Amino acid sequence: MRDPRAGEITFREWHDRWWDARIVEPRTLRGDASTIKNHVMPHWADWEMRAVTRMDVQSWIRSLVEKGVGAAAIKRAYNLTSSIMRAAVDDDVIALSPCRRIDLPQIAVKPPQWFTTDQAQSILDELPAPWKTMCLLGVYTGLRWGELSGLHRHRIDQRRSRLFVVEVNTKRGIKEYPKSSRSRREVPLPAHVLEALERHIYRFDRNAVVFTTVTKGRFGRLLDDGNWRRQTWWPAIEGAHYFDDDGEQQLVPHYPPHSMRHTCASWLVEKGVSLYEVQHLLGHESFQTTQRYAHLQPDAHKAVLGAWERMETPLTIAA
């Protein structure tokens, strides 16, 4: 039987117990700690757990909206609060979670930023070796930057033209993806990409990381995302030009390295590869993430246009 006095514990006290019991990645912990500090604790810290109602939670969400907090930040704050409350129910601190049927602001889905073939080629031309090979691989495999910079020589199967995504480079060094994660996957390599990769790795030891620092005195260290962007990616972007449809020379869009991943997905979908295959290739946990590319499918609007064409008497206006 639940002790009704258990709910007298404050939100802050229960949060501390919940936090100490969590098993999550260090990067996730840092982000969650920031969200809780900025958006959760200022409101809930001194509340008794038993006093929080569903309407209190909804009012808190409304107050965050009025303060101008972004929809994504509100969703993260709510999800963390909901997890805290669910744990309290499981431990018989409260009988029912107040986090139920809560209206959240809609998160605007940004269209993926991707490069055309001319733009991508211009970037490759501006990059110094060996970053040409790294970015060629990024565009044709859709690997995340941490997966590219964490790739090991023995994960490349030259005979079968495949590579295996197992390790990832993080701010805390190389780590392996969990065995259950969709991120751990096999990725096919086009022939010309494999050839470029073979030229790059032919002297490497079996367990070597494929892409590391090349600066004199710092050779062979794991790449740092921020440094690589600042020293390699952005200078190449700023020097890259392409010709638009009118024959005018233009600067390549100022997109981050992650756009190589979007470029891979966009090109494949445009060529008729199914969204489910793209989901598997990119290691998306959710199919909803992959659906951002649906509008690029060759037959994306075929049914709609077909319906209009079948109308017996379409509307017209005089010429």
**Radius of gyration over all CA atoms, rounded:** 25 Å
Low-pLDDT stretches are: none
Estimated structural class: mainly alpha
- Helical residues, percent: 40-55%
Total of DSSP H or I helical runs spanning 4+ residues:
13
Distance between the termini: 80 Å
The strand line-up of the biggest sheet is 1-2-5
Mean residue pLDDT? 93
**Helix-strand sequence:** HHHHHHHEEEEEHHEEHHHH
Quaternary status of these chains?
A: single chain
Q: How would you summarize what this structure contains?
A:
This protein has 319 residues and is mostly helical.
Question: Could you outline the blueprint of secondary structure elements for this entry?
Answer:
Blueprint: H1 11-20, H2 26-44, H3 54-66, H4 71-90, H5 117-126, H6 131-141, H7 145-148, E1 156-157, E2 162-165, E3 167-170, E4 173-176, E5 185-188, H8 191-201, H9 225-239, E6 241-243, E7 249-251, H10 259-270, H11 275-282, H12 287-290, H13 302-309
